[in-house]
């Protein structure tokens, strides 16, 4: 009997979860040292295969740049490992001897991981390392258009883990993924946590599964180039960031907001760095190819080069063009250039001043990027704090490439391929998700304070002996003040205590 594709995918998922659950029960008994040795082996193997896996991802998905995916793979393997290697994640992780509290970490169990088509290999590395570091097993549902490169990455990780003594089945995957299998994976009774990176539908499904879940939101990131910025340097970084892997990282800048005072200078630097400005007629053609329905970006442009997108739009542009730009003054679902475009396509907005820029950036974030990231280039630290407080985001990236800065490559943020959007974006966390989010902590707490429990029907009458209460509280206040007795007006203190007691008794 031959099962159809959906049934086969569901059965494979169930078998894989069963193996992972069994393996995790064994794995969680391992020492911190043993788990760390397995995680290190995985990171090393993944890092060593970064180039081949990057090339495989580009060949399969048709998205991005192999050299850039190589860098993402290195962040997802080596950088992630370096950031978590010394963290205690198993057994006793902290002891507070003064307060007599002992903290003990324990894993969630089986982690279901949803992997996107835009960053398939690096995300698979990152999620595997962080899940196992915390004592979990992992079962991965790849994107159907990136299943080969994702599974190959997981095979590299699993082989390294097995050679270091990990139990069989600790790292699992659905080799022929389907939407139904993915949905059932997220609700499977043996799955304990969901790490979802993908489209809005999948993230919503993860949060609706009844399981603990980390999801992410869209990142319609505005970048504000303020008049005090080093324009030459800032523009180069913005262009390098926007064109990195053809714009497939969600933290990539999507629209430039520039002060009127430096607009012409910025435009010249953009052109110097390979940007092509569309004229009104070309802009209309681009709008038709960017969005095929209001609020929806055409998937055919995602991760494609500027030349390829121009070809799709019927534009004749110079062969060295890296970035397509159109000047814009509107924001909305019916304004294609204002949407999140995971491609080397930019909108350029001109602001009269910083207040005008702030309003424009808020418009763009409210359109579809709340909770994610905001980028700013300025030499005014006061302005950074002002915008930092005003923007409804979880990361404010300053004077660097937003795309790779947000994931921790050029900043001190935790290296991560899953960026939480917090309450602004409907997420449970606003942090860069890493190993510390993938385990629970139980606490052993000793009694350190005495409690005088009133007996039923024998509640003390606080009004009966107020003079004794006043005397006792006055004495305690004097002793704690550390001031010599002769320097204190006891009468005033007694009067103050009486007033406080009277107010308290009236309230009770």
Automatic annotation (TrEMBL):
The keyword Oxidoreductase applies. Keywords: Oxidoreductase. It holds the Pfam family Aldedh. The keyword Oxidoreductase applies. GO terms for molecular function: acetaldehyde dehydrogenase (acetylating) activity. Residues 11-272 form the Aldehyde dehydrogenase domain. InterPro entries: Acetaldehyde_DH_acetylating, Ald_DH/histidinol_DH, Ald_DH_C, Ald_DH_N, Aldehyde_DH_dom. Its EC number is 1.2.1.10. Coiled coil: none annotated. Residues 460-476 have a biased composition (Basic and acidic residues). Residues 454-476 are annotated as: Disordered. NCBIfam families: EutH_ACDH. PANTHER family: ALDEHYDE DEHYDROGENASE-RELATED. This is Acetaldehyde dehydrogenase (Acetylating). It comes from Oceanobacillus locisalsi.
